[in-house]
Amino acid sequence: MPRHLRYWVGLDAGHLETAVCLVDAEGNVFFEAMTETRAAPIRDILRRFGVEPVQSITIEAGVGTQMVRDLRSFGFPVQVADVRKSSKFLAIRRQKTDANDAKGLAELGRLAQSFGPHVFIKPVEHQDIRIMIADSEVIARGVPI
What we know:
By secondary structure, the protein is an alpha/beta fold. Helix content is 41%, strand content 23%.
């Protein structure tokens, strides 16, 4: 199996399945697959090609929030793209498929390595605090939870 010096990954995450696309520095696709929407199977795919050459993993905000956290905990450079901005980039494709979207996201990560449409993923602890605050506001108003 060829080892690539550097590559970019695009993930089009759905509730059950995620399209994975790897492109090289010239934008050529050298691997595509569908896998579960979990970080471990994606990590296993990337290990085949070497983990160090991964320049970025680009995913749209939404379904894959926990997967993003897990991939980051494995040490991968994951960038989360704002759906409104990335959809404009993906709209130039002729066919709207999961595989094409994954390829487009890989290309977006490759071409716009420091692009601005990143989305901040809050740590789980921050979300838990927000839930506690919301619950306390509901209790203060006398509404049962």
